[in-house]
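Review this chain:
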Amino acid sequence: MIRTIFAIAAFLVIQCNNPAFAAVDWQKVEQVLGRKATALPGDVHRFGFPRSDLKVTLDGVAIKPALALGSWLAFMETHEGAMVMGDLVLTNEEINPVMERL
């Protein structure tokens, strides 16, 4: 899942920064990512990717994925194309492969 998110984000940023860039069709982006964006101020489109595959406890208390285990990407159109920011929730085993890809 993490690799797919990275690949899609990289593709979208490259395409949006293409000189032939036209306005982003956010419905198509939602279709590719398989989820609806949350619209934020400043025409930012945020996509959440909760890590429901992780079972995490802290001091015996289960952490729910929606509370703290969510990766996300937020896109914003700029006059030069698009910008993306986000966070990734990774396990120790995922860190090195993700850093190599970056």
